[in-house]
Known about the structure:
Helices cover 36% and strands 27% of the residues. The chain is an alpha+beta fold.
Amino acid sequence: xxxxxxxxxxxxxxxxxxxxxxxxxxxxxxxxxxxxxxxxxxxxxxxxxxxxxxxxxxxxxxxxxxxxxxxxxxxxxxxxxxxxxxxxxxxxxxxxxxxxxxxxxxxxxxxxxxxxxxxxxxxxxxxxxxxxxxxxxxxxxxxxxxxxxxxxxxxxxxxxxxxxxxxxxxxxxxxxxxxxxxxxxxxxxxxxxxxxxxxxxxxxxxxxx
Length: 209
């Protein structure tokens, strides 16, 4: 379990914030291979119409958990003809992650996870490798977590607009990274009632850099 938690702490920084009518995710794509194509790495994912998630830690574990979440929300939609609530899917995936800590022959998922979106209102949850779940107004995971939390405590404001949340998220990632951030090594996504899940293009991100 301690190794799994350390993997989550050493992954690339990702930030989630509850804005006035939306949840905003910003994430750093820490590509270290000189010949790698940054666009082939994805850090923020659409789970359902009004639900998104991002992870920090071992990529294969993160993708596995993302697929589990998508399967659960799709099953819920087919049965009930509605989007699953943010809290319910967060609890369900936290139970899956906790189950992985109980049995021999398997290991805990080596990721920290942020799940956010809009149901009756914008909501954000963090799930750690042990399966512990906690709701947040603003939160960070990954190697820059401590720095990000310090800045969020000072600069995050309840009810801030989406643009301000994006600017703050990118500012934090810039400070937490030892490399200059650019349109090809950061991701931004916004979930709101009007536009649902929107993953920002490089042209849209460039306005903030």
